[in-house]
Amino acid sequence: VEGLSVWNKDADPIEGGILLDILEGKFELVDPSFIAEMLTTLAAQRSLSIDALERNCRLAFDAWAVAGKMENSFPQCVYDSSVTVSELSDDASRYWIEAFLLGGVVSAGGKYSAFE
Predict the structure, then answer these.
(1) Paired residues of 77 in beta bridges
(2) Can you tell me the distance from the alpha carbon of 107 to that of 103, in angstroms, rounded to the nearest whole number?
(3) pLDDT tens digits, one per residue of 14-24
(4) What is the pTM of this model?
């Protein structure tokens, strides 16, 4: 996870929608020949629950791997820690899902307590 975009569905697509984000390079286009396999992988996800979250995240990662898009563009660590920017952003996404879609963060378990 490297970011999140939200668009106003009534916005002009060139001045503030997904097309602008694509043109600005915020999204990578996937070769259409990979789409069927990616969708098959994503279709294996289960209804969102705390028990299914880890598997669903892995399947999303696997679907992206089908298209060969697995390079880590953020290998550096956060400040003087051993936590990479990519790991921190993946965790932040997971914790957001837990907090706002599942009712509370349960997997953090003091992982980042050294930063408090």
Answers:
(1) 84
(2) 12
(3) 677 778 888 88
(4) 0.64
